[in-house]
Amino acid sequence: MTRSEWRSLARRVVARDRHRCYLCGRWGSGADHVQPISEGGAARDPENIRCICDNRDRADNCHDRKTELEARAGRARADAARRGAAPTD
Ligand SMILES: [Zn+2]
Description:
The chain has helices at about 5-15, 60-85, and strands at about 30-35, 50. By secondary structure, it is mainly α. The protein has one domain. Bound molecules: zinc ion. Zinc ion binds next to loops.
């Protein structure tokens, strides 16, 4: 998916969701994959994409928070895989 394809898809989703963040209900202009692509989520399916708040003025915006959670989950998966590969210390 090109950047411009994503932008037009995201615009459509944000309009569909009337700028309401699917996590906190505040106004938002971002779009986010509910199931991350890294976890097998559909990249282009509007059903897998929701409006999310990504206001950079707020430290607690849902997009940053979700990105951080996903990064942490990814690190945990990598750690588990490493432990699986080398079970004993
Ligand atoms: Zn939010």
